[in-house]
Write a structure and sequence with these properties.
The complex is a heterodimer of chains A (about 300) and B (about 120).
Chain A lengths: L2 H22 L6 H8 L6 E2 L2 H16 L9 H6 L15 H10 L6 E4 L2 E4 L12 H15 L5 E5 L2 E6 L6 E6 L6 E7 L1 E9 L4 E4 L2 E4 L13 E8 L2 H13 L5 H7 L4 E6 L4 E3 L1 H6 E3 L7 E3 L5
Parallel strand pairs in A: 13-15
Antiparallel strand pairs in A: 1-3, 2-3, 4-5, 5-8, 6-7, 7-14, 8-11, 9-10, 11-12, 12-13
Helix pairs in contact in A: 1-6, 6-7, 7-8
Chain B lengths: L2 H21 L8 E5 L5 E5 L4 E6 L4 E7 L2 E6 L6 H5 L8 E4 L4 E6 L6 E3 L1
Antiparallel strand pairs in B: 1-2, 1-7, 3-4, 4-5, 6-7
Classes of the chains: A alpha+beta (about 300), B alpha+beta (about 120).
């Protein structure tokens, strides 16, 4: 499109992103805050239509992931100090408090959604849309661009992105940064409409007494998920790619192909804490390692 | 200045302008370093990882440093030190040579990304 048209669209999206970042984050007095304030009452209440729709979608993805992506553990995320603009400095929270919240096992099953009406059935349930909101926002932005008649674009939300169309005569070229150290690990070409989302332990974290504590909390243990360094997912929808990257990060090495299949995600690359790279055959067809030496990658077929 | 001279001058300027438009490409970040030592052996290294390399030269080892996607001659046993003074290079196609020591580094690759996911 013409530069002026592109600039107008970019300004439009930027404003919308700023609004959503404010409205959807799990802290501060905002749209999600109003929902979280009313969930513990156990009474039915109405939410803004956009908010109710988003929570319904987060619930659906949580259940398909076998609750490895679990937005109902807002209290745990808050206890760890990750619900803040500033990353926490430690120490990790007391074990008894973590255990109490894990024991209460908040689940999105306990959030009833009927149109715009919501009802919570667990007093310790609070919603945190981290691991989903970014993908969902990127999807809405792409919808908006299409309404504006823009067919070729990348919407990049801090490294996670969705691309439509092409870069002139060639596909979009995306680098996937190496989880440890500098530089690009692999490259992928996107042609048509696809999202690339990565969840990594290097994003938000703190160190305490020589140990690293990152922001992706395993709902079953209440502690940062262990064993994974990063998971990259390619999928049309950003929301699905985002939730799947989180869920597959939490999933163990044995179970991740089964979780991916359940979520309808076929392109996955997973880097283990010991440096092992595993990926689906579909992903192997798409990405090309550029780091040297190229890591040895093991193919893992999606389990039925 | 005759009319023909003026015409030729105008044409020459046009050719200069056109070649700029046709041939000028913005620099692309490099991905790999190709290092040739005094024996003529070439080795390729990724620019993704910080490291120090030693290349066997005619008068002793040249030290090459890789950091943050760039490379430089950190030290070399040559009188002028022009290779060291050249400093960091990071774009595909850039070359630094230490002629006295017969060590050559060339930056390669760099498909150029539209975005980097992390």
């Amino acid at each position: 499109v013409e530069p002026e048209e592109a600039e107008a669209a970019i300004a439009d999206l930027r404003q919308d992103f700023e609004y959503k970042t404010e409205a959807w984050r799990a802290w501060g007095p905002n749209m999600l805050g109003q929902v979280n304030a009313q969930l513990p009452s156990g009474q039915s209440f109405s939410a803004a239509p956009a908010m109710a729709e988003m929570i319904a979608e987060a619930k659906r993805l949580s259940l398909t992931s076998g609750e490895r992506f679990n937005p109902a553990i807002g209290k745990l995320v808050s206890l760890w100090g990750f619900q803040s603009d500033e990353p926490p400095r430690g120490p990790p929270p007391p074990a008894e408090e973590i255990e109490a919240l894990v024991f209460s096992a908040p689940s999105m099953r306990e959030v009833e959604v009927e149109g715009v009406m919501l009802r919570g059935r667990n007093p310790l349930l609070r919603i945190d849309l981290g691991g989903f909101a970014k993908g969902y926002a990127v999807d809405r932005a792409i919808e908006r661009l299409r309404e504006l008649g823009i067919e070729n674009a990348i919407v990049n939300a801090g490294g996670d992105l969705r691309a439509i169309g092409r870069h002139g005569e060639r596909p979009w070229r995306i680098g996937i940064r190496a989880p440890r150290g500098e530089g690009v690990l692999a490259a992928v070409e996107l042609d048509g409409d696809e999202s690339v989302f990565t969840s990594g332990d290097y994003e938000r974290h703190f160190e305490w007494e020589g140990r690293r504590y990152h922001h992706i909390i395993d709902p079953h243990t209440g502690y940062p998920a262990e064993g994974t360094t990063s998971v990259t997912v390619l999928h049309t929808e950003g929301a699905t790619a985002d939730a799947a990257a989180t869920a597959l990060f939490v999933a163990s090495r044995e179970e991740w192909p089964r979780v991916a299949a359940a979520m309808g995600v076929r392109h996955v690359m997973r880097v283990d804490t010991d440096g092992t790279v595993e990926m689906t055959p579909q992903m192997a067809e798409r990405i090309r390692f550029v780091a040297e030496p190229a890591p040895a990658a093991t193919l893992r077929s999606l389990a039925p | 200045v005759t009319r023909l001279d003026a015409l030729l001058l105008a044409l020459a300027l046009l050719v200069v302008g056109a070649s700029y438009a046709l041939l000028w490409q913005p620099p692309r970040a490099a991905e790999r370093l190709e290092l040739v030592d005094a024996s003529g052996q070439a080795q390729t290294y990724s620019l993704a990882e910080a490291r120090e390399l030693s290349a066997a030269g005619r008068h002793g080892p040249s030290l090459i440093e890789i950091r943050e996607g760039r490379a430089r001659f950190a030290a070399s046993p040559c009188p002028e030190q022009s290779c060291v003074l050249h400093g960091w290079v990071g774009s595909a196609g850039e070359t630094v040579a230490c002629l006295p020591n017969a060590v050559l580094l060339t930056l390669r690759g760099g498909a150029g990304y539209d975005a980097v996911n992390f």
